[in-house]
Amino acid sequence: MAPAQELPPETEAEPLGDAADKSRVTVVGSGNWGSVAAKLIASNTLRLPSFHDEVRMWVFEEILPSGEKLTDVINSTNENVKYLPGIKLGNNVVADPDLENAVKDANMLVFVTPHQFMEGICKRLVGKVKEGMEAISLIKGMEVKMEGPCMISSLISEQLGINCCVLMGANIANEIAVEKFSEATVGYRENRDIAEKWVQLFSTSYFMVSPVQDVEGVELCGTLKNVVAIAAGFVDGLEMGNNTKAAIMRIGLREMKAFSKLLFPSVKDTTFFESCGVADLITTCLGGRNRKVAEAFAKNGGKRSFDELEAEMLQGQKLQGVSTARELYEVLSHRGWLELFPLFATVHEISTGRLPPSAIVEYNR
Ligand SMILES: NC(=O)C1=CN([C@@H]2O[C@H](COP(=O)(O)OP(=O)(O)OC[C@H]3O[C@@H](n4cnc5c(N)ncnc54)[C@H](O)[C@@H]3O)[C@@H](O)[C@H]2O)C=CC1
Ligand SMILES: O=C(CO)COP(=O)(O)O
């Protein structure tokens, strides 16, 4: 299909004032998706007059086998050689290993790290972000606190006192990196103008972004589908075939919707038909990292742990599905909902070795 997309119009006139009128964007995170997000954004900040050209990207510093710092290599080669090798990010992307320095001049922050690091990152940023800052989270995951589950966008909003939208979708990063057409959904709370600004910042001829007024629905879709992808990987590892996998995806989608609506009755049915819903579920169950590692786990009969397989197969990239299944299980146990969500519960029980991988089709007991 030829992507018949028109880029968002460059409606704003060239600012009359000085460069201070322009928005400055910082990407917090530089993994596989973080690097692709920086590439997308950097192509647009060059094109759109209301943004500064430069895009800062915070890098969790590491030393490469060559002895060089990852940040130095990104800045000299314009490539994230560890997490997105072979792709030029754009000369206006500047890697910065100092988190506080990376955000200090920004007024738009894009959060895109594995979810388990976000609590620590937010703590470091308290009092360090500009007034009126706008944020967006591309992070698929949640935190579980004493009071209950906390979505990552809420963590950001509450800890930093800023508004936070979300962007989720059927977005396997390596495919978008080579500019294959895909779609995404921006979830926003009230301010449609802010949502439009994020749409403008991310949209390209091959990346079509649509806004939806349903932050929780969009974010829960992105978060929960990773658990279903683990189940799909078990099915693949056991060579159960396409019908079984389709059944797992359908049951998973039903649980995703039921859980989201129990937690947030405001979640809209229509959100599940956006890119963040059924489309992301399909792509992740076909081609994602959660599926791939879960397949290896099942092939090994559950004898090698997810941690071990993740380290061996993903070279520093992180799975979100296994920890999300654990977090979900805590919520389900605490609220007495385990029986309502047998697929979610079984994924956790298999991942922790309490049940064999074959239990993935026996849970409907
Ligand atoms: N890769 C993909 O295709 C997609 C990923 N996502 C989501 O984006 C989020 C980020 O994922 P990726 O960019 O793919 O990351 P990744 O899994 O490729 O890379 C891991 C990142 O974590 C960093 N890291 C390691 N230890 C850390 C620490 N202690 N503190 C802070 N950072 C640390 C690494 O430097 C690296 O940047 C996740 O929530 C993921 O679910 C969403 C859509 C697509
Ligand atoms: O979220 C993703 C695609 O939209 C990527 O999923 P994985 O983390 O399983 O690769």
UniProtKB/TrEMBL annotation:
GO biological process entries: carbohydrate metabolic process; glycerol-3-phosphate catabolic process
Enzyme class: oxidoreductase
Documented EC number(s): 1.1.1.8
Region of interest: Disordered: 1-21
Listed Pfam families: NAD_Gly3P_dh_C, NAD_Gly3P_dh_N
Active site: 225 (proton acceptor)
GO MF, any single term: protein homodimerization activity
Gene Ontology cellular component list: cytosol
Span of domain Glycerol-3-phosphate dehydrogenase NAD-dependent C-terminal: 214-362
InterPro entries xref list: 6-PGluconate_DH-like_C_sf (IPR008927), 6PGD_dom2 (IPR013328), G3P_DH_NAD-dep (IPR006168), G3P_DH_NAD-dep_C (IPR006109), G3P_DH_NAD-dep_euk (IPR017751), G3P_DH_NAD-dep_N (IPR011128), NAD(P)-bd_dom_sf (IPR036291)
UniProt keyword Secreted present: no
Reactions catalysed according to its record: sn-glycerol 3-phosphate + NAD(+) = dihydroxyacetone phosphate + NADH + H(+)
Annotated residues for binding of NAD(+): 29-34, 60, 117, 173, 289, 318, 320
Residue ranges of domain Glycerol-3-phosphate dehydrogenase NAD-dependent N-terminal in the record: 25-191
UniProt binding sites for substrate: 140, 289-290
Keyword annotations: NAD, Oxidoreductase
Family statement drawn from the similarity comment of this UniProt entry: Belongs to the NAD-dependent glycerol-3-phosphate dehydrogenase family.
Protein name: Glycerol-3-phosphate dehydrogenase [NAD(+)]
Organism from which the protein derives: Rhodamnia argentea
Upper classification of the organism: Eukaryota, Viridiplantae, Streptophyta, Embryophyta, Tracheophyta
